Fold this sequence. Notes:
elongated, mainly alpha
Amino acid sequence: MKQGQEAGIFRDVNPMLFYFHLNGASDQIFHNHTTLNxxxxxSNFTEEMKNDFIDHLTETLLSGIRx
Length: 67
């Protein structure tokens, strides 16, 4: 992140808050199977769903810190 900030690619972002944002989002979807099943009727988290989530989270977070 620091290298991207120094290169002018990323705006200044608190790295601790970014870490917890990324980690918290990942924890929720990968470890909260009860909510997936109860709320969305999903009993098995497939490889395709995992990849879709990774793509979505990556794009969302990177769009949020780009200059």
